[in-house]
Amino acid sequence: MKNENTLRTLTSTSKKIADLKGFNIPITLKVIADYEEAGIDQYFIDQQKLQLQKYLVMVAELAAKAERLLECYQGDGSVDRPGMA
Predict the structure, then answer these.
(1) pLDDT of 33-82, one tens digit each?
(2) How far is CA 18 from CA 2, 13, 23, 82, in A?
(3) Using CB atoms within 10 A of its CB, is residue 27 exposed (0-12), middle (13-18) or buried (19+)?
């Protein structure tokens, strides 16, 4: 049962990563390019760049989570959570 939950969470995490990489990040990059081309105020461009950074951080965090889940699924079933006692 625990392995089923781990596998389900791993699948969900992988989908979130794919969505970010396949939709959110490309759209944000396109918006930045469009804003720059149109000469939109730098404030709005910076807001989109900040959003892009958030997406990139989310991808990195989700990838680390997926790696831990995969190790858990393949290993003994325990998940190490930094900062958790």
Answers:
(1) 999 999 999 999 999 999 999 999 999 999 999 999 998 888 755 555 55
(2) 24, 9, 8, 25
(3) middle
For 18-75, the three-class secondary structure string (H helix, E strand, C coil) is: HHHHHHHHHHHHHHHHHHHHHCCCHHHHHHHHHHHHHHHHHHHHHHHHHHHHHHHHHC
Say how far apart CA 75 and CA 69 lie, in whole Å.
10
Place of tokens 């720059």: 36
The residue type at 52: L
Decide: 1 and 57 in contact? Cβ < 8 Å: no
Burial label for 13, CB within 10 Å (0-12, 13-18, 19+), is: buried
What predicted TM-score, i.e. pTM, was given to this entire model? 0.81
Q: Which of 16, 25, 20, 5 is nearest to 79 (CA)?
A: 5
